[in-house]
UniProtKB/TrEMBL annotation:
Keywords linked to the UniProt accession: Signal
Classification via PROSITE patterns: PROKAR_LIPOPROTEIN
Organism the protein comes from: Bythopirellula polymerisocia
Protein name: PEP-CTERM protein-sorting domain-containing protein
Signal peptide region: 1-22
Superkingdom, taxonomy of origin: Bacteria
Length: 241
């Protein structure tokens, strides 16, 4: 069975050298995740939820499925929260820059979303059901051909990256987040059985604090300066009168 999404950083690989197709095993206690707000306008905040991962590329064409579940039964994701896109990226820890891997072209997929929300329903297959009840799920799928992994610098890592939008009035907001990834059928149905099933995972502290972007110092200084100039001009006009 082919699977294109790799092991989370703290999970050890146990692959036979004879394997020529990609496989993965996601643990339930992954590496760190990071919320990076990028824009706030029109009452909506946009940002990226980034989760470190490792990756084994397929040697034959396959379909990858992945998704994120936000909120829980006791802490529901509010209305207006949505995930508009997903990429696998090379993320630079020093600069915060990210470059998507061109091998993946993830698109929102309603079949993937519905399936990830339900899980396998099995009590035998490990980590094939959502970790939290009541989450709002957002699923994605991508056809993937064989490709070579990029060579990373010491400051770089591979990561899942989800583009999130939510109303500014909801901030600051803390939500539980859990994830799923693995192989799927061509139409986007996750494969929960077999040698390498789609699995669910999260980080040691699964709650994510979602905030708005902090204004750049120069922007803030410019705004204050303009405000002072306007006040001075207004005072001068009153004095001349």
């Amino acid at each position: 069975m082919r699977n294109c999404l790799g092991t989370i950083t703290i999970i050890a690989w146990s692959l036979s050298p004879s394997l020529t197709i990609a496989c993965s095993k996601h643990g339930t206690n992954a590496g760190g995740e990071l919320w990076l707000p990028t824009n706030s306008s029109g009452g909506v905040v946009q940002g990226f939820l980034t989760l470190e991962t490792s990756l084994v590329p397929p040697t034959v064409p396959t379909t990858c499925t992945a998704g994120v579940g936000l909120g829980s039964l006791g802490n529901l994701a509010p209305n207006g929260v949505t995930v508009t896109g997903m990429s696998i990226v090379v993320f630079n820890n020093s600069t915060g820059a990210s470059v998507p891997l061109p091998a993946f072209s993830f698109l929102p997929n309603s079949i993937t979303t519905t399936s990830l929300m339900a899980g396998s329903g099995s009590s035998v297959q490990s980590n094939t059901n959502p970790l939290f009840e009541g989450s709002s799920w957002f699923g994605f799928s991508s056809a993937v051909a064989s490709f070579l992994l990029p060579v990373l610098s010491p400051d770089e890592m591979l990561a899942f990256q989800f583009a999130v939008e939510l109303p500014t009035l909801q901030l600051p907001l803390r939500l539980e987040a859990h994830y799923a990834g693995g192989e799927g059928q061509s139409e986007g149905t996750p494969i929960f059985d077999g040698t390498h099933p789609v699995q669910y995972f999260t980080v040691a502290d699964p709650s994510v604090l979602v905030t708005a972007p902090v204004p750049e110092p120069n922007t803030l200084t410019l705004a204050i300066t303009i405000g002072v100039i306007l006040v001075l001009r207004r005072s001068s006009a009153l004095y001349k009168a």
